[in-house]
Automatic annotation (TrEMBL), chains A, B:
Keywords: Nucleus, Repressor, Transcription, Transcription regulation. SMART domains: BEN. It holds the Pfam family BEN. It comes from Spodoptera litura (Asian cotton leafworm). The gene is LOC111360876. The lineage of its organism: Eukaryota, Metazoa, Ecdysozoa, Arthropoda, Hexapoda. This is Protein insensitive-like isoform X1.
Length: 218, 218
DNA sequence: GTTCCAATTGGAT
DNA sequence: GATCCAATTGGAA
């Protein structure tokens, strides 16, 4: 069973190799959902106090596609705050139904549906893919690995840093999957840095070309 | 004898021994065992599979000390003075006597004495060390890997690029030495880029602090 | 549409 | 003193 296998792989109990087994896309596609719209609102990075578990927001989709997708605004708002762990006082109703998968230390939870779409073709692709499963595009575009200022551009505003625990969980997950290639953490972190930079560029493109800016040759 | 051993190492008949990446060594990570680099097993395909210019037979150099290399070291005379004579004050006659060692394709010759000083502790150290054995500090400081302009600093003057053949020979040499870790060329090239940048910074420092700039507390 | 590359930088290690 | 890190960039792959 795919889910069971995915969980086993998670725990490193199934061997990986450079060319991983073809990803069970069918399972993911069965419940495929349209990517939620990314509100271009730069959210303020709220530092969690002492999070026990980092829960990645789920998409507004019914648990196993059996039920009609009951989209609640609460869920959408939650999706805006990917870095913030679920708050105790906010009971997540539909979110609780979403099957979650722990990665790394187990403190980071990834929606199973998203996890199944992660591409394991190479450590770089896997890292970038995992990032997209865990963070929203807007978060990736507005954050950096360390939150430190660019030494080459000291005047540029500093970006907030990605949640360190989640980053660490991603790194160890990729390391485990590709452990036969003895990946150093710094390699994976470099990919994360590049991914954030690329997302930042893409976001900038979209902002400067909202709609109607394109040239239309007749 | 050291020279004999060096030649053996060149042919890959002596292996990396302890020479391997001393481990990621990130922060708290720690405990990955330094796995011993495969059992000693001569597997380097130095054998003359092809008559091409690939590998210069070691024998052509071994007799040395009085015979010029069979292959004309065209590359090294290429204006960039990649290989400087050991002693500037001695005439070039001893330079012709200097035992040279071919690396990579065999088109690049390294003075044996410098080659013996190369550190093989890790692929990064080895790469930087090899660079210093092949290029002068001033060349490293004034050149870059590709010779392309920095995309982040389009106004900066473009540096000349290091000799592509020599770079390739360095890359393949390091790759061969550390092939058990399946190094990608891009990794090694990145080290070269960084080394050039570091040498450039150092040169800049020296230029701004010739002598007499230091503070002397009594 | 992404991903990758590498030049430059200052500080950290 | 040398090496490593990673933020930023534009264009190449």
């Amino acid at each position: 069973m795919y889910i069971a296998r995915a969980l086993l792989e998670l725990r490193g109990e199934i061997f990986e190799e450079e060319a991983m087994e073809p990803i069970p896309v069918e399972a993911a596609e069965a419940v495929q959902a349209i990517e939620p719209v990314e509100p271009a609102m730069p959210e303020v990075p709220i530092e969690p106090v002492e999070p026990a578990v980092h829960q990645v927001p789920i998409e507004a989709v019914a648990p196993m596609a059996h039920v009609a997708p009951l989209v609640e605004p609460v869920v959408l708002e939650a999706a805006l705050e990917p870095l913030v762990p679920i708050e105790p006082e906010v009971p997540m109703e539909p979110a609780a139904m979403e099957p979650m998968v722990p990665i790394g230390s187990g403190q980071t939870l990834v929606p199973l549906r998203k996890f199944l779409r992660v591409k394991w073709d190479s450590y770089t692709v896997a890292t970038r893919s995992l990032l997209r499963a865990v963070f929203s595009q807007s978060v990736l575009a507005t954050h950096s690995l360390t939150g430190k200022r660019s030494p080459a551009f000291l005047d540029r505003p500093v970006k907030a840093c990605l949640d360190a625990q989640i980053v660490e969980d991603i790194v160890t997950t990729v390391q485990t999957r590709f452990k036969s290639s003895k990946l150093k953490k710094s390699m994976i972190r470099k990919v994360i840095t590049t991914k954030c930079a690329d997302e930042c560029k893409m976001l900038r493109m979209k902002e400067n070309r909202p709609p109607g800016g394109g040239s239309k040759p007749p």
